[in-house]
# Entry
Amino acid sequence: MRSLFIEKKRIGILGGTFDPPHLGHLIIANEVLHALDLDQIAFMPNQEPPHKTRTSGTTESDRIRMLELAIKGNPFFMIERIELARQGKSYSLDTMIKLKEANPEVEYYFIIGADMVEYLPKWHGIDQLVQLVQFIGVNRPNYLLDSPYPVRYIDVPQMDISSTMIREKRKKSISIKYLLPDNVIQYIEENGLYES
# Structure
């Protein structure tokens, strides 16, 4: 007899500017995927994050192409473009309401770094958002994993790599090798991204 119980698909959401995507992003995604035995990780580039302004000079298509290259060959990684379809600031609450409406059969796990765990009380609509997703906090150097909100913590290897640091190195013509996948570096160099 067939079971009437239908198991929900479990997807981790890793949001960010991914400007550029680097090995830190990929390691976090892989560690959470396996620690929670998720079906997929969706990398979700945002249009305009509420807490910072993008001034790198890259286009939306540059960021998508770099992400495609970064996750190439990993069948468990995908790109979720929902926030790029909207203009203005990207609020996670609005995004998750739309995703849940479109995919009611999916259970979402929202992955955030320790810097964002500390910032959670200031998130737009946080009380409603915690009803829609399970927050997954990952450690980052110099931040505490402490929040009044329900956050499940996953220990990941400490890598103090940031997109900002990579952009700064490019401006100063310092090597970025081993900080991001070679095919992403090649794209950055071929397109003259982040140069001064």
Notes: The helical segments are 23-35, 60-71, 92-102, 114-119, 126-132, 163-171, 182-190.
